[in-house]
Amino acid sequence: MIINSRFFNRSELMGFIALAAVLFVILPLTLDVFRLNLVAKYLTYAFVAIGLVLCWGYGGILSLGQGVFFGLGGYCMAMFLKLEASSVENTKIQSTPGIPDFMDWNQITALPFFWQPFHSLTFTILAIILVPGLFALIIGTAMFKRRVGGTYFAIITQAVAAILTILIVGQQGYTGGINGMTDLRTLKGWDIRPDHAKIILYFVEVVLLFACIGIAQFIRLTKLGRILVAMREQEDRVRFSGYSVANFKIFAFCMAAIFAAIGGAMFALNVGFMSPSFVGIVPSIEMVIYTAVGGRMSIFGAIWGAILVNFAKTSLSESFPQLWLFGLGALFIAVVLAFPNGLSGLWADYVQPRIDRLFASRKAKADWADNSVADGAPAE
Amino acid sequence: MFGDYSIGDLGSIFVMQGFAGLILFSVYVLMALGLAIIFGQMGVINMAHGEFMILGAYVTWMTSNLFQAYLPSLFSGYFFLAMILAFLASGALGMLVEWVLIRHLYKRPLDTLLATWGLSLMLQQAYRSVFGAREVGVELPQWMLGSLRVTDSIEVPINGVFVMCLTVLITIAVAYVLYMSRWGRQVRAVVQNRVMAGAVGINTEKVDRYTFGLGCGIAGVAGSAFTMIGSTGPTSGQLYIVDTFLVVVFGGAASLLGTIASAFSISQTQSTLEFFMSGSMAKVLTLLAVVGILMLRPQGLFALKVRK
């Protein structure tokens, strides 16, 4: 099944080691808890970026609705946490104790039926994977089986993002409206708010991130990954060769949705709230931009893109709020016009050859030394 | 849902809501006309289309302020000049953008989406820096205020009637330019077969630039009309962009008639539903219906039969 017998080639292995070193060792040692928590927030977008590399970079399917899946995952997690935070003791002052505060404010007196199963953590974890997965399956089947792709698909996923945002904002009583679900406190009785919990959650997230990297890399190396690339380049030929193009596209889209949902769930845990401002059109396009800046063809590049763009966003919008939008806009245009493969493309074009040359010249020197010793030996 | 109203009341409600829908329809049509040219004809996804519209709105606002300050006697007629200025400003910016940005991306339609999104962010920030973050409203001349009384229970605002007449005129003008004039024939020739059009002596680059400029210019006029019925802020354009894309896609991308028909059905559905439920649910149901129909019929309402 796996075509390439090595899981990572050398440059990927270097990328893997570098990322692992930074995320597991350097950042936790150098940053305070507040900044580390910010990194955890950025990393939730890295999950989305991995999904987009598979579905957009490899499969050629541009989805502008990743915020939908991010949001669905996030809201599933937030619903569980919110229910736990709204126990009868915590909500004594409400007119109906035991339901989330925003429901009480909106004169709802009983927990709606679709909230009931979220009392169970097992159900919640399953829902985080299955709800976005099934939703992507439905959209994907409806679109790809009819050979809708490219720009049309992008616009329709964008419309879906708009619909979900309007729905969440409009149905305040069931979803918390524009403020979202705030004041999330505990996970199975374990407080998620203090510093040590944030550090643990950070490491849980990084481990999950590497698991997702592993899955994505595995998909890339199997025949499936090759078919995705072939499909992107010459869809008709793949179809004529007897493959069901639609099924492969649906698969890539569903995987991207599930990755995004995991990111969303980690967002709810790490940041402690979930709101429609992470669901709609603008965040969905921003997610695509992180991927494009990092490099749509490279898993590690996209992760760096998510981290760096968000870092720039936080620091620049703190100090120069006016410049930030100009900078971001210019960055998109530059990425598209000047370096379509993003940071990883720049790395592969300019930095990697130098490193290779460095290694090559050392190796050549070593070879030369070996040879001279070998040549010298018989002369003695 | 209908229980509390008598038949006569319901009739009036439908007429009044229908009229409110017609104003929405006018804005949709004006926005969508430009987009239908740019997206439908050229295949460029212009996410900055809303910002071109807002530029037209700001030009109108500035013109009205200038007239108020220096030519108060001619104030009642400022709107016509403002519209022309809005068309020229947005059209010129559009041609500049085409020259700097879009012409490098004709072979990568999905990338035009990202680049123009970046452009829209920059334009929004530019508007915010120049005009301020607050929404601005245009003062309407006296003759546009008030409303026409059709029957006892039905009233229609004059500015709405004016915007609608304007929409009809512009639509006819665009249809004439695209389907009757020599230049329109060149545009359609380039769209249908770029290489062949070039071979028979059409300057395809120039046609592209003017087509893009025309689309953006119409967006500017849409913005000008938009000031008649709402206030303008730096991010107002973004509110309409998704709806407008849906209108164009729903109508069948390359068809002018389809664009108008879909703008009509979407705006009417939305404004009729709005009376019976909250505005957000009306919008959700309308968009869901559109997406649902598009999933069943991806080519849109009026599809041209093209071999690909």
UniProtKB/TrEMBL annotation, chain A:
Q: What InterPro entries does the annotation carry?
A: ABC_transp_permease, ABC_transptr_urea_perm_UrtC, LivM-like
Q: What is its main location?
A: membrane
Name its cellular compartments: Cell membrane
Keyword Ion transport attributed: no
The domain of life for this entry's organism is Bacteria
Q: Tell me the keywords, alphabetical order.
A: Cell membrane, Membrane, Transmembrane, Transmembrane helix
Q: Does the keyword Transmembrane helix apply?
A: yes
Transmembrane residue ranges? 12-30, 42-61, 121-144, 151-174, 199-219, 240-267, 287-311, 323-343
- Membrane topology for this entry? Multi-pass membrane protein
Extract the Pfam families matched here. Answer: BPD_transp_2 (PF02653)
Q: What is this protein called?
A: Urea ABC transporter permease subunit UrtC
- State the species of origin: Bradyrhizobium agreste
Automatic annotation (TrEMBL), chain B:
InterPro entries per the UniProt record, alphabetical? ABC_transp_permease, ABC_UrtB_bac, BCAA_transport_permease
UniProt keywords, alphabetically: Amino-acid transport, Cell membrane, Membrane, Transmembrane, Transmembrane helix, Transport
rRNA-binding recorded as keyword: no
**Where does this protein reside within or beyond the cell?**
Cell membrane
- Entry keyword annotation includes Cell membrane: yes
List the membrane topology term(s).
Answer: Multi-pass membrane protein
What are the transmembrane regions? 12-40, 52-71, 77-101, 158-179, 210-229, 241-264, 284-304
Q: Which PANTHER family match?
A: ABC TRANSPORTER PERMEASE PROTEIN, BRANCHED-CHAIN AMINO ACID TRANSPORT SYSTEM PERMEASE PROTEIN LIVH
Q: Which family does the entry's similarity section mention?
A: Belongs to the binding-protein-dependent transport system permease family. LivHM subfamily.
NCBIfam families documented for this protein: urea_trans_UrtB (TIGR03409)
| Protein name, as recorded | Urea ABC transporter permease subunit UrtB
